[in-house]
Design brief:
single chain; 310 residues; mainly alpha; two-stranded antiparallel ribbon; 2 strands; 54% helix; globular
Length: 310
């Protein structure tokens, strides 16, 4: 977008960053989505500088334009969520008297079950063997340490990549994590995770300059990026002979699913996951039930057979 951002948008982004404590990636995502909407408004002779002039029809036109461009329904839904959050902020600031997003429905999306591993697969991934020539390199140790934290502590990939060296205490039993909305929680560390961290911290200076604050760094010594983390998990899957569809977030899904399968309390899992709502955690009970049903149907002698009523 050419020119400065509208004051309303500047205030909103400052609110996200300084009052809500949203991580930089979240603020950037909101800025991009709202700037895209602002550009559409400019083509109609409108602007987010005057949010009270925006109508529901303009929001629907924005969604239609996204559809025309081939934007996925999931991405369009995220952009609509950004608009809703922005206009609620405008209402609190008395910049508008009504919400133009009211009555605008999210694009219908297919509900796909998240990909996760069973316990044996998770252990296979974390024990994945690679070529001897690179087995004990700093990069190899980093990759396994990252995977251990995603699975062993249930971290979001953004939380793991956002960790700074200064916040990691050697020998500590937990990590202090700042999750979505700046919410703080303690993520416990398994004994294996603690050993993986110790090993990585010992080799990290081979990759990272002393001025780099990030715990996880790439080959150039800068903070590891999400795309590279995805490649790391795919590489570990390949080495372990596992399906390639697993994402870093899939390890977090596996963490929650395995806890519930082992009988963990739902509210305890909510705390460990950093979910603000219990309903978000409850979806893992549905996944667990579906898994048990599938196992029953496959393994039980009468599984999947309909009763003969004759």
């Amino acid at each position: 977008m050419n020119g400065p951002l509208p004051d309303s948008l500047e205030m909103f982004l400052a609110h996200l960053e300084f009052e809500r404590g949203s991580p930089p990636a979240t603020v950037d995502a909101y800025a991009k989505d709202l700037t895209q909407f602002h550009e559409l408004l400019q083509g109609l002779g409108l602007s987010l500088a005057a949010p009270d002039k925006v109508e529901g029809a303009h929001v629907r036109k924005f969604l239609a334009e996204l559809h025309r461009r081939g934007v996925s329904k999931t991405s369009a839904g995220r952009k609509l969520s950004a608009l809703r959050t922005f206009f609620r902020f405008c209402a609190r600031m008395r910049l508008i008297s009504r919400l133009p997003t009211d009555g605008v429905k999210n694009p219908k999306t297919e509900h796909r079950a998240p990909v996760f591993l069973n316990v044996d697969q998770a252990f296979a991934l974390l024990d994945a063997k690679v070529e001897p020539a690179v087995e004990e390199t700093a990069i190899r140790v980093r990759d396994l340490c990252l995977a251990e934290l995603l699975y062993g502590s249930g971290l979001r990939i953004s939380e793991a990549l956002g960790l700074d060296l200064a916040r990691v205490s050697r020998g500590a039993d937990s990590l202090r994590i700042f999750g979505k909305g700046g919410r703080e929680r303690l993520a416990p560390l398994t004994e294996v995770s603690k050993k993986a961290l110790e090993h990585w911290l010992a080799l990290r200076p081979q990759l990272a300059p002393t001025t780099e604050p990030a715990l996880f760094v790439g080959k150039r010594g800068k903070r590891l990026q999400r795309r590279e983390a995805q490649r790391i998990i795919q590489s570990l899957c390949l080495a372990a002979g596992l399906p390639q569809g697993l994402t870093p977030h899939g390890l977090r899904h596996s963490f929650a699913t395995h806890l519930l399968e082992a009988g963990a309390d739902l509210r305890a899992v909510q705390e460990l996951m950093g979910h603000s709502r219990l309903t978000t955690t409850q979806r893992y009970t549905h996944l667990n039930l579906a898994h048990l049903t599938a196992v029953y149907d496959k393994a039980h002698p009468k599984g999947g057979l309909k009763e003969d009523n004759e």
